[in-house]
Amino acid sequence: MAMSLEPVSPVFSQEAVGRLRRISRWARAFSYVAGALMLFGLIWLWADAEALSQYARSSIGLRDAAVAASGRGYWAAFALACIPAGLFVLAMLRLGSLFRAFGEGRVLVEQNAAGLVRVGWLLACFGATTPIVRALQSVALTFDNPQGQRHLAITLDPGTFAALAAATALIAFGHVLREAMRLADENQSFV
Q1: For a tag on the chain, would you pick the N or C end, based on fewer CB atoms within 10 A?
Q2: What does the alpha-carbon distance between residue 173 and residue 68 come to, in Å, rounded to a whole number?
Q3: Of 107, 159, 104, 105, residue with least CA distance to 129
Q4: 3-state secondary structure at position 8
């Protein structure tokens, strides 16, 4: 009795492949749009003085502080804002490339598990850096205020916790996917 050692590749119907491509295409587009909206929002926020003032009072936490940022305070705060925005954009680009792989039929492969973990860590860094950046922005935007009117504001919002929760889920799912593939390979070797 001869046993074949060739891997058994699943055969999917054209309908299933079409659904996978369609869902992956939409998810990839959503990922890229989310990254683009982050960039657009970043530029719009820092180009519009009224929007920046509102952001400083609400998100950064400078509610009653005088916000008349000098050039160096403005540019320092803007440069700081680029850190979490860049992490988010990079996470969305990675997520988009992961959905592209899914759409091409590369679903249960090691690179995808590693990709999920990377996206998770990027979102974790985004969630962790956001409150730190906002605190540093509060200092930068009030740095040139007169003595006694400088502020350090520390704020936490539900979006930070949501990013950290999503990051944790993606990291865990990436590790579970990797282990599931190892188990499948191990079981396949017994056949």
Answers
A1: N
A2: 45
A3: 159
A4: coil
Distance of CA 189 to the CA centre of its chain: 37
- Predicted structure pTM score: 0.83
Q: How far apart are CA 107 and CA 33, in angstroms?
A: 23
Give the C-alpha separation, 70 to 142, whole Å. 8
- Residue 5 in tokens: 């050692």
87 contacts 126 by C-beta, under 8 angstroms = yes
The pLDDT of residue 35 is 97
DSSP character at residue 129: H
DSSP 104: T
Q: How many helices (H) and strands (E) does the chain have?
A: 5, 0
The CA distances from residue 108 to 32, 137, 138, 182, in Å, are: 23, 42, 45, 10
**Separation of alpha carbons 104 and 25, rounded Å:** 10
Among candidate residues 142, 141, 135, 50, the one with its CA nearest the CA of residue 84: 135
Q: Which residue has the tokens 């704020």?
A: 155
Output DSSP code: residue 143.
T
